[in-house]
TrEMBL record:
It comes from the Eukaryota. The active site is at residue 55. This is NADP-dependent oxidoreductase domain-containing protein. Residues 19-284 form the NADP-dependent oxidoreductase domain. PANTHER family: ALDO/KETO REDUCTASE. The lineage of its organism: Eukaryota, Metazoa, Chordata, Craniata, Vertebrata. Signal peptide: none annotated. The record marks 84 as: Lowers pKa of active site Tyr. It comes from Peromyscus maniculatus bairdii (Prairie deer mouse). Keywords: NADP, Oxidoreductase. InterPro entries: AKR (IPR020471), AKR1C (IPR044482), Aldo/ket_reductase_CS (IPR018170), NAD(P)_OxRdtase_dom_sf (IPR036812), NADP_OxRdtase_dom (IPR023210). Transmembrane segments: none annotated.
């Protein structure tokens, strides 16, 4: 870790800020909130902005970034922007077009990091989540290695400075790493990771391969009933976090964030609340270690041949 500027070096020589701002927002919230929150985050000091094609708000996030560039708060090179390839674009001939759609919405020339959002290829088309009459995902037969080759071409074209993956398990990462003719290793694997799911085995594997682990849902995931089992515990209500927060005169959120940073994990924090966005920049010095339950799940896609969450790590 580069402590002076709070960045981690990636295996391709680029650097990623250790703390990022997540821009996924609930569908019932106005997309304009993404613009407002991203502006607040940049003003608060965030330089790592994480988004995705499927969030459907890159136009709004891009507006915030450009406005902060235009008013002199930052330069483009100060911002580390991540976008992601959605599952319906896994066919090699579609990969570049998905990235180009994101760049057009953002009105940017390149992204700093482009990720395969999930290892599961879905039927191409207008629907983000194509499902059959039984409510099951309609998969597409695409080799992940072919998708990765198309990602490599995006890097060669200068459309993405770095490329990586998200929600990949160890087995799926090894498929890419062992691909004949591999040109670029994934620089990172972005996964759900928090004190209730510490991903210790996956973290150790990634470190052994010089792949950075990036944690989303680091403060516990949102409580959307379509994505989260409502019987699972609320992370920030955890008594251990509450006790540590009291001891160190901090908040449970700051305890959870600092825990990740001290493990060498790049961590994403998401909020639409101005006070909490500013607070999340104040990560502190204590850690804890729990591993209880995976909060996020996508039940409709559990039958997909590349569903990543059935393996131990």
């Amino acid at each position: 870790m580069n402590s002076k500027c709070h960045r981690v070096e990636l295996n391709d020589g680029h650097f990623i800020p250790v703390l990022g701002f997540g821009t996924a927002i609930p569908s019932e919230v106005s997309k304009s909130k993404a613009t407002e929150a991203t502006k607040i985050a940049i003003d608060a000091g965030f330089r790592h902005i994480d988004s995705a094609h499927m969030y459907q708000n890159e136009e709004e996030v891009g507006l915030a970034i450009r406005s902060k560039i235009e008013d002199g708060t930052v330069k483009r090179e100060d911002i580390f922007y991540t976008s992601k390839l959605w599952c319906t674009f896994h066919r090699p001939e579609l990969v570049k077009s998905c990235l180009e759609q994101s760049l057009k919405k953002l009105q940017l020339d390149y992204v700093d990091l482009y990720l395969i959002n999930f290892p599961m290829a879905l039927k191409p088309g207008e629907e983000y989540f194509p499902i059959d009459e039984h409510g099951k995902a309609i998969s597409d037969k695409v080799d992940l290695c072919d998708t990765w080759e198309a990602m490599e071409k995006c890097k060669d074209a200068g459309l993405a400075k770095s490329i990586g993956v998200s929600n990949f398990n160890c087995r799926q990462l090894e498929m890419i790493l062992n691909k004949p003719g591999l040109k670029y290793k994934p620089v990172c694997n972005q996964v759900e990771c928090h004190p209730y799911l510490n991903q210790s085995k996956l973290l150790d594997f990634c470190k052994s391969k010089d792949i950075v682990l990036v944690a989303y849902s680091a403060l516990g995931t949102h409580r959307d009933k379509h994505w989260v089992d409502q019987s699972t515990p609320v992370l920030l209500d955890d008594p251990v976090l509450a006790s540590m927060a009291k001891k160190y005169k901090q908040t449970p959120a700051l305890i959870a964030l600092r825990y990740q940073i001290q493990r060498g994990v790049v961590v994403l924090a998401k909020s639409l609340n101005e006070a909490r966005i500013k607070e999340n920049m104040q990560v502190m010095t204590q850690k804890t270690c729990l591993n209880l339950v995976l909060l996020s799940y996508i039940s409709n896609f559990s039958g997909h041949p590349n569903f990543p969450f059935s393996d131990e790590y």
